[in-house]
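can u do me a favor
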C-alpha cells in the first residue's frame, strides 16, 4: 500500500469534541473525524466549493476528495443517528500558514 500524500488544510480545529448531552459521557461511544475529513466537509458543505476546487486547495486528486467526503459523511451521520461523540484529530495533514497563502 502506498503511503498517504500529505493533505493541506487551512482550518486547524484545535481540540474539538462534540457529544450529545442527553447521554452520560461515560456511556458514550465515539467516532474520530480526521483533520482532512473535517477540512473537506468545511470546504464542500460550508463554503460550497466543488470537488475540483477542494482538490486543488488540499493538493490531492479529485477522486481522493470524493473518498474523504464519503468517509466523513458516514462518520458524522453515524454519530448523529446513534448518539455518538465526534472527536476531530489526526490524519496526514499540514496546516497552510497565512504567509504561504499570500505567496500564491
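np, heres the sequence
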Amino acid at each position: 500500500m502506498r503511503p498517504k500524500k500529505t493533505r493541506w488544510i487551512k482550518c486547524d480545529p484545535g481540540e474539538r469534541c462534540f457529544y450529545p448531552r442527553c447521554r452520560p459521557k461515560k456511556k458514550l461511544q465515539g467516532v474520530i473525524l480526521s483533520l482532512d475529513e473535517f477540512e473537506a466537509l468545511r470546504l464542500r458543505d460550508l463554503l460550497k466549493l466543488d470537488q475540483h476546487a477542494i482538490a486543488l486547495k488540499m493538493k490531492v486528486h479529485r477522486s481522493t476528495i470524493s473518498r474523504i467526503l464519503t468517509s466523513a459523511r458516514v462518520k458524522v451521520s453515524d454519530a448523529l443517528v446513534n448518539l455518538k461523540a465526534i472527536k476531530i484529530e489526526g490524519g496526514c495533514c499540514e496546516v497552510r500558514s497565512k504567509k504561504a497563502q499570500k505567496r500564491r
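Confidence is low (pLDDT under 50) at residues 99-104. hope that helps!!
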